[in-house]
Every structure is written in C-alpha cells, then in structure tokens.
Amino acid sequence: MNSIEANNCTIHFNENCYTALNQHLKSRNFSKVFILVDENTHQLCLPRFLEQLETSAAIEIIEIESGEINKNIDTCVGVWNTLSELNADRKSLLINIGGGVITDLGGFVACTFKRGIAYVNVPTTLLSMVDASVGGKTGVDLGHLKNQIGVISNPDMVLIDTQFLSTLAQNQMRSGLAEMLKHGLISDLKYWNKFQDLSKLSLDDLDALIYESVLIKKNVVDIDPFEDGLRKTLNFGHTLGHAIESYFLSHPDKKTLLHGEAIVIGMILACYISTVLTGFPKETTQNIKQLFIDYYGKETIDEADYQPIMDLLKYDKKNNHGNINFVLLEAIGTPKIDCLVDDAIILDAFEFYAS
Questions:
Q1: What is the pTM assigned to this prediction?
Q2: DSSP states along 125-170
Q3: How much is the mean pLDDT over the chain?
Q4: Which CATH superfamily hosts domain 171-354?
Q5: Which Pfam family, giving just one, matches this sequence (predicted)?
C-alpha cells in the first residue's frame, strides 16, 4: 500500500513502515529515542518493533498502565519526570506504541515537553489505526470527561503495521470497527455497504478497509485541520457516545465500555434523532440499529441513567455559546453539523435504543 501524505505527516503501511522510520532516524540524528508503551504493548508489540529498528542512538523504554482510566494529567507528569530523569533534550524522539490512550497521551507529552519534541505514532489497535492515527489530536481526559485537555499537532509520521492486530481481543477489534462504520455513514454509501455482513469480514479484508478508512479521515482533516466545519462530521455518534462512555466509566454499578462500544450506541441514538430532525429514513435507522445490535449486542441503559448522561453533554468539545451541537445525517454520506436537539427528542432516542 502506498504511503499517505496528510498535513505534514506521512502515514506508512506494513512493509514501508520500518524502511521509512529507519531513514528518518538516520537523517534526523536524534540524540535519544524514547519508546512509550503500556504493559500489553511492551509484551506483545515491542519485541517485533525493536527487531526492525536501526539506530545508533540510545533507546529508553517508558511503560505506563493501560486503560482509559490512566489517560490523565497525572500519567503525563510521570512520563515528563521520567524523560527529564533520563536526560531527554530538544533533539530527542518519542515513539508511541499502543492504542489511542498511548498515542493521544504520548503525543501530548511530546508536544509539551521542553515546548515540543518530535514524536512518531505506532498505533497497534484497529481503533487507533483508523482514528487516532490521523489528524494530530493529542490530549488527556479531565477526570471522567473525555479529551478535555490537549493540542492539535501532527507527529513526524504514523506507522500502521497491521500485523499488530493479531494481538487484539475480539472486543478491541469490534471497538475499532465502530469508527470505520462511522466513516461509512458520514462519507460514502459504497464504503458503508461493504460492512453489511460483518460476520464475513476477515483479517485479509481489513488491510484494504483500513486504508480506505484512513483516506476518508485524511481527506476531511486536510480540508479542516482545526475542526471549524467539516471535521466536526467525524464526531457523528460521539456527542452522546462520549457522554455514555464517561457515565459508564464513572458509575460504580456500570461496566466500563470501550470507546467503540459507546460510540455504536451514540450512532444509533444520532440516527433516530436524524429521522426526527433531518428526514433521515426511518427504515434505514432501523436497519442500522439491527446491524449494530446483532454485532455488538445491547447495553442496559436504565431510564434513571438518561438525565445524568444528558447532563454530561455540556462538556462536549463541539459546544459553543451554550449550545450543544449534534452531528446528524440527512442520508448516508450526507452529514449535517451544528444541529440543536431538544431534550425530549434525546429521551425518545434512548427509548428507541431500549425498545
């Protein structure tokens, strides 16, 4: 697969990854190379990565604990302190090997340490390959509120080695697939139709689908890197999805949802709201709901949960001037941004999901 140029950042795939990285290491002559991992990628991904690495620079491994619960400023402080103790300087390179938590947090650490050092992202989950790998968003959560602190700054390069997908559990694969389904809904009926029988998808199919998904997001981000307009469409399903994810993360009686699991619920809710406000076909909404529930199952969201989830909407990053802005669909491939939605319609959407 050919490499993709995206806003001063090149995305390399499979066999091109390590050739490009080694050339980059040689040409930039970094003083030190730091590699950020969690306990899972340290064991499952780092050995393969180090086998491909060619550099005379000193290499230091920094490990943090996995999971969204550790994507916070305290973890950043720990990594900053470690970089400082290991004598990282402005000419150091940070390589982030992991899922979205690692690439988001590692990118933020790199952008802020000594006012910015170079970094490279090596996404190892399907979700991070098709979502976090493109667009330069970095950052951490504020308490249980998603991605409240961060900056937009691109890495030197992104390396997508799909062999790492073999290390993932099925629920992690499904979580990443949710973002690919979203790309189809907001951009391309033809791409969406490729997912109509999810049971038949194989790992061999994934390479081409991942490449297409990366291209879809890349084309959006190229036009609108700072989310002033078109890039907001990438948040389809995320307004309520993030609120549900945050609520389940903070509620002691709820299980923790993976990002994609929450976004699937958010997309079903957004499709229902679209039938009410933008004329999105009811039959299409029903078909989308059935496809998602058949593949992901249905989470229990009690009536008592509705209002606390809705209260979290005020923290959504798309909000402005006190308005909660939704991304809705007029048709598959035709999103509409900055939609205002009455609470009564959101409550009806929850009932539709539960029915």
A1: 0.93
A2: SHHIIIIITSS-B--EEETTEEEEE--B---SEEEE-GGGGGG--H
A3: 95
A4: Dehydroquinate synthase-like - alpha domain (1.20.1090.10)
A5: DHQS_C
